[in-house]
Amino acid sequence: MIRLEFEFAVFLFLLITIFAVLLIWLFWTKIKLPQQKNIQMESIWQCSICTYIYVDSKNQKLSVCPRCGSYNDRKEKGGGP
User: Fold this and answer.
1) How far apart are CA 40 and CA 48, in angstroms?
2) 39 phi and psi, to 5 degrees?
3) Angle at CA 33, nearest 5°, toward 65 and 21?
4) pLDDT tens, 55-66?
């Protein structure tokens, strides 16, 4: 029979419990993260009139602001001032 002291048994129990909680937490976050929607930067718009930031999933050059109704043009990257 294996002989254990009380302090070592408590330490072992706590270590196993913390390790199990850590594994459950890692498994839970790995399951939850892929289910979140991945918003691409091309679908995020900022209104040039009211500066409202919104998501428009249509990949177009023009978008209508849901707050003020103004039309916004997609700015080309790498352009001048």
Assistant:
1) 20
2) -90, 125
3) 145
4) 887 767 888 899
